[in-house]
Design brief:
mainly alpha; 2 helices; extended; RNA-binding; ribonucleoprotein; 40S ribosomal protein S9
């Protein structure tokens, strides 16, 4: 069995005690029934990767093979 490749799953915030962010995360945890802040950070990181990929695709030419994925 091959060893698993470890990847970055979430990114902790730069400022650990920013009141507005803490309140927003607590609201999200209560609304969606998440267990801890790490789950919020994981989803936020995944969405950031998807948005980054979308921005990259939009900068390509319209007739580029990567952009035409029908």
């Amino acid at each position: 069995r091959a060893p698993l490749v470890q990847r970055k799953v979430c990114v902790a915030p730069r400022r650990p005690f920013e009141k507005a962010r803490l309140d927003q995360e607590l609201k999200l945890i209560g609304e969606y029934g998440l267990r801890n802040k790490r789950e919020v950070w994981r989803v936020k990181y995944t969405l950031a990767k998807i948005r980054k990929a979308a921005r990259e695709l939009l900068t390509l030419d319209e007739k580029d093979g990567k952009r035409l994925f029908e």
